[in-house]
Amino acid sequence: MSETETTTMKNIAVNAPGAPRTIESLDPVFTVSGLSVFYGEYEAVRGVDMVIGNREITAMIGPSGCGKSTVLRCFNRMNDLIPGARAEGKILYHDEDLYGDHVDPIEVRRRIGMVFQKPNPFPKSIYDNIAYGPRVNGLKGKMDDLVEEALTRAALWDEVKDKLKQNALSLSGGQQQRLCIARAIAVKPEVILMDEPCSALDPIATTKIEDLMQELARDYTIVIVTHNMQQAARVSHRTAFFTAEVDDKGERHGRLVEFDETSRIFTNPTDKRTEDYITGRFG
Predict the structure, then answer these.
(1) What is the pLDDT of residue 15?
(2) In angstroms, rounded to a whole number, what is the distance separating the alpha carbons of residues 267 and 101?
(3) Handedness of CA 155, 161, 164, 166 (dihedral sign)
(4) Quick check: helix, strand or coil at residue 81?
(5) Is residue 198 within 8 Å of 208, Cβ to Cβ?
(6) Neighbours of 8 (CB within 10 A)
């Protein structure tokens, strides 16, 4: 990114939940330029450019099949696990090429955690779900304290502190999702990716997850994919709107249409396609 572009980004105001902040105090965590993602010969997403700010919540919205989750999985190289998948273009993580030859994908996934659409706790105790990652990564410290800290940060400690040896699968759906967030926090990441984390939850559980996201954004960078536009408007600092375009061969390709402060995306978008989607004219 050029010095001019960096200066421009730093001068952009961020209207977010809570007190207003500016990007000036938030260094970019990810700088994405010309990102295209292929599955074999099929180009699922093409030409994405965006910057993810430190300790911001960035929401990605758009109709099904527009590449939101595909882009999200690029941030911690989860697409590497899909045969035939490859990314072209650049994703810089603190100015380092995330796909450089010297980069260890396992270390990437430790620093950049992920929470999936459906809660997926291990069939182990609540305690062992949290302790598993730190043990595998050889993290030092008192495990009991680490488990308590992660569950507290995920707003779950008071609900489970007396049943830590209980099977995690006995928890409610909302509790399981918060457990998965605690499990991600336990390995001390910098970034938390969330792929439709509330789609399987009821409104009360969804509210708890949204409140938790806003609390976690004080210390973590969060990128969330959501079909719920109201959720994006409530919790995010910035929003990226994706859509799917059909080429001359009849193939659909995901494209980033607009990326801006969330307040602008929802009140004064610059692209008519964004306005049409938000107002329900298509999608």
Answers:
(1) 37
(2) 42
(3) negative
(4) helix
(5) no
(6) 12
Note the maximum CA span of the chain. 60
Query: What are the DSSP E strand ranges found in 40-166?
Result: 42-53, 57-61, 85-93, 96-97, 112-115
Quote the CA–CA distance of 26 and 209 in Å, as a whole number. 24
Q: Which of 26, 29, 2 is nearest to 12 (CA)?
A: 26
pLDDT digits (tens, 9 = 90+) for 50-65: 999 999 999 999 999 8
Strand ranges (DSSP E) for 107-234?
112-115, 191-195, 221-225
Compute, in degrees rounded to 10, the torsion defined by CA atoms 63, 74, 235, 229: 0
Sites in the chain below the pLDDT cut of 50: 1-25
Q: Give the domain ranges of the chain.
A: 3-105+114-120+191-278
pLDDT score, position 282:
64
Whether residue 36 contacts residue 254, with contact meaning beta carbons closer than 8 Å, is answered with no
Q: Could you tell me which CATH class the domain 3-105+114-120+191-278 is placed in?
A: alpha beta
Write out the two tokens for 8: 């421009």
Return the pLDDT at 27: 79
Assigned token pair, 208: 């708890």
Nearest 5°: the CA angle 160, 175, 224 is 135
CB 224 within 8 A of CB 235: yes
Integer Cα distance of 43 and 39 in angstroms: 7
How many angstroms separate the CA atoms of 237 and 115, rounded? 19
Q: Is 143 helix (H, G, I), strand (E, B) or coil?
A: helix
CA distances (Å), origin 138, targets 47, 123, 129: 39, 22, 15
